[in-house]
Amino acid sequence: MSVPTNPKIEQKQTEVIWKRSRKAKRIELNDHMVKVYVWELPVRIFHWINAFSIIVLMITGVFIGRPFVSASIQEEAYYSFLMGWARYIHFFVAFLFTINLAVRWYWVYKGNEHATSNPFRLSFWKEAFETIKYYLFMKNH
């Protein structure tokens, strides 16, 4: 269905507006130095949960793919259940990793100015591309 528009009325363009977050905590140490808390505690917790999750997922994933330990005494799998525990830990940590990602996305909107990013801005992608070039040794700083 088409709606007739009045050419005299100027159309407003819709734009995604990013709500500015709060500023990072600053503490003046003396006249020349300021301590800035860039990464808040939740961001640090997200980081360490991700680091732990990735390490555990790699170890359990390799074990599931190529078991390097088996029961020393041949017995029923019911008694040792080693592969079952590896899979259980792997799936549990995978869910932890996924939930951590979802909570981190929430913190993108609620965190301070350093914890947020806006993928809807062109400058976000320009900065991301510059960072990729830097890490691929295509650009010197």
Topology pattern, helix = H, strand = E: EEHHHH
Mean pLDDT: 80
Q: What gyration radius follows from the Cα positions, in whole Å?
A: 25 Å
Count of alpha and pi helical runs? 4
Distance between the termini: 54 Å
Largest sheet: 2 strands, antiparallel
Membrane topology: Multi-pass membrane protein
Family: Belongs to the HupC/HyaC/HydC family.
Keywords: Cell membrane, Electron transport, Heme, Iron, Membrane, Metal-binding, Transmembrane, Transmembrane helix, Transport
Protein name: NiFe-hydrogenase I cytochrome b subunit
Task: Describe the model.
With 141 residues, the chain is mainly alpha-helical. The protein has a domain at 42-135: Fumarate Reductase Cytochrome B subunit (Up-down Bundle), CATH 1.20.950. 51% of the residues lie in helices and 6% in strands. The protein has helices spanning 41-65, 77-80, 82-110, 122-135; strands at 25-28, 34-37. The longest helix has 29 residues, at 82-110.
Please give the structural blueprint.
Elements: E1 25-28, E2 34-37, H1 41-65, H2 77-80, H3 82-110, H4 122-135
Antiparallel strand pairs: 1-2
Domain Cytochrome b561 bacterial/Ni-hydrogenase: 38-137
Subcellular location: Cell membrane
GO molecular function: electron transfer activity; heme binding; iron ion binding
